[in-house]
Design brief:
It is a single chain. The protein is an all-alpha fold. It contains 23 helices and three strands. The chain has three domains: about 110 residues, no CATH class; about 120 residues, no CATH class; about 325 residues, no CATH class. It has a three-stranded mixed β-sheet, with helices on one face. Strand 2 and strand 3 form a beta hairpin. It is globular.
């Protein structure tokens, strides 16, 4: 689901599409890639020209653009397209239809913050006048900016009264009405107000020093308004939401609700509802628990797999050695792929991956290694952590966990995936889905498992930890967004059912419930992997393709919904109105 982070995901996808627009499009009809590039360019121009967060003119113009493009898409002669072109058409149609829902969802989110951001109307008026080159009356504008500062000070006082705390400016307390706000809405409003503060700064900077009378009239009103915005944001985030940038900050998030979850599933071409995916995840967790018990016995821990997992997590490298461990593991994973003829690894891909360190701030929401650009970010304890947090971070990134994480992030995981996608059907970057992106990396782990990548009970338990963790993410994320699990219950579930360190579980939950994190993303690992495993049964286990041919073909299609990858590989009939029907769960091959 793209709604909650619509601008961010659009910007990322469009950047990728623009960077690769001139690349050759292999094995495809030229009509649809050209249309997709044109749509991407049109949308980027609209986004750039209406660069005001939450403004109606932006929503209205995007809505008009999508509607126009939907009408244009209906003029395409679908039946004359080759299979790849038909898939591109369905992808574009799905993007346009769901994009209209995205716009409505984001408009609704901003409307929910109206009582906390009424001052944005002044900002919109000022910025739109700048766009249009309207003559500027500096004296009148100074009055508007001064009014903005007054609104912000009054809002700050009302928030403080609503929190039953003494306002910092008691002069307003007798006339101000208390304003009560939930922690989740306050945090979202603080993020939005930060964007608006940036808008005010860019507006002021444009005229400052350019029009002498502007600076004379506006210098002090702007400084007052900027300071009032800074204070207001602080009250929202720290007082109302309780978030102060510390490890012990409360977990704050807003469930999107059942209707939004259902809409996200439709966007992702999944014919299942949330209860069906929860049932699937529970089956996966039950299989993992049984397998973990078996490995615990092999380690001499009886049926107590959590005790065995504690022993596994205590086997971490000394400070300063994590990069060497990862590099050695990465090279071994590449050799493993080649020895088993799993997938083609272009020499340049093998050459160009790198390692970087996870920024300290990022560790609060991503406590494990991750892939960014061409590099795997190493997660490890820092010297400024307290002693217990250091140990929890090192336990969470131990030798046996890293044996699975490294190929997941590099080869055959995300690094290989990015390399191939950027050179095949690059226009499809616009339609990227985590069910393909994360599903592929977890599916790779499952192939490694089947082929004996883990040679000791400790390594196998490390692989199983990640597998059960990905299934647990389905449970906690869906239940949170359906309103049936609180953030603290999510943390407890990850600790008790999966064996997480509490620091790691807390960081995972903080990320999952964040405003800019798509609600279905945590479910994408397991669900996407099961889709690929079902397709593997259809094409490889059946003897129709080799592992290498299958994996090369999947990677070459790009990060699109896996049901459409299946349609291409099996040459299934498609219509312009094709919807999701693939019930892959019965084909996923549970032992």
């Amino acid at each position: 689901m793209k709604q909650a982070c619509f601008p961010l995901l659009i910007a990322t996808a469009l950047c990728l599409a623009a960077q690769t627009a001139s690349a050759a499009e292999p094995h495809t009809d030229p009509v649809l890639p050209r249309l997709i590039h044109q749509f991407a360019a049109d949308r980027q121009d609209v986004l750039n020209a209406t660069d005001l967060p939450g403004v109606d003119i932006r929503f209205d113009r995007l809505n008009s653009l999508y509607t126009q493009w939907l009408a244009r898409s209906r003029t395409v002669d679908f039946d004359s397209l080759p299979p790849s072109g038909k898939v591109d058409f369905i992808l574009l149609r799905n993007e346009l239809e769901c994009g209209l829902d995205d716009i409505a969802f984001e408009r609704k989110q901003w409307a929910e913050m109206d009582s906390l951001l009424p001052f944005r109307k002044i900002l919109y008026t000022l910025e739109q006048a700048r766009w249009e080159g309207t003559p500027l009356d500096s004296r009148a504008v100074a009055s508007q900016v001064s009014e903005l500062a007054k609104q912000l000070k009054d809002l700050k006082t009302r928030i403080e009264l609503g929190l039953n705390s003494a306002p910092s400016n008691s002069a307003h307390s007798l006339t101000s009405t208390p304003l009560k706000v939930t922690a989740a809405l306050a945090n979202k409003a603080a993020t939005s107000a930060t964007l608006l503060r940036g808008t005010l700064k860019s507006w002021f900077t444009f005229y400052d020093g350019f029009r002498p009378e502007f600076s004379w009239w506006l210098k002090q009103p702007y400084e007052d308004a900027d300071k009032a915005l800074e204070d207001y944001i602080k009250v929202l985030r720290e007082n109302a939401a309780g978030i102060k940038g510390k490890d012990e900050d409360p977990l704050v998030g807003q469930p999107v609700g059942q209707a939004a979850v259902a809409a996200a599933l439709r966007r992702e071409f999944l014919p299942y509802d949330a209860p069906a995916l929860l049932s699937l995840a529970e089956k996966e967790m039950a299989w993992c628990e049984k397998a973990m018990t078996s490995e615990a016995r092999a380690m001499g821990c009886g049926d107590d797999w959590k005790s065995a997992l504690t022993r596994v997590k205590s086997d971490f490298v000394a400070p300063g050695a994590q990069d060497s461990l990862i590099r050695e593991t990465a090279l071994n994973a590449i050799r493993f792929c080649k020895d088993h003829k799993l997938v083609t690894i272009p020499p340049l891909c093998e050459e160009t991956w790198r390692l970087t360190m996870m920024p300290p701030e990022t560790l609060k929401t991503i406590p494990y290694a991750a892939y960014n650009g061409q590099a795997m970010m190493i997660a490890y304890a820092r010297n400024d952590m307290n002693h217990e947090d250091k140990l929890m971070t090192m336990r969470g990134n131990n030798r046996h966990f890293m044996r699975t994480v490294t190929p997941h992030e590099l080869i055959p995981g995300h690094h290989l995936q990015r390399f191939v996608a950027s050179r095949n059907h690059p226009h499809r970057a616009l339609f990227s889905t985590p069910f393909y992106v994360e599903g592929w990396a977890l599916y790779g782990e499952r192939r490694f498992w089947d082929l004996g990548w883990a040679t000791t009970p400790e390594d196998r338990l490390g692989m199983l930890f990640w597998r059960i963790n990905r299934a647990a993410r389905v449970v906690v994320a869906l239940q949170f967004h359906l309103g049936t699990m609180t953030p603290s219950q999510m943390v407890d579930f990850l600790v008790t059912r999966v064996g997480h360190e509490r620091l790691g579980a807390t960081a995972e939950v903080r990320r999952f419930i964040g405003d800019n994190f798509p609600p279905l993303y945590p479910a994408s690992y397991t669900v996407g992997a099961l889709q690929l495993e079902a397709l593997h049964h259809e094409l490889v286990i059946s003897g129709k393709m080799t592992n290498q041919a299958f994996h090369d073909a999947v990677l070459s299609e790009g990060a699109i919904p896996l049901e459409l990858v299946r349609a291409l590989l099996l040459n299934l009939p498609l219509t312009r109105d094709t919807r999701s029907t693939w019930t892959f769960a019965g084909e996923a091959g549970y032992p």
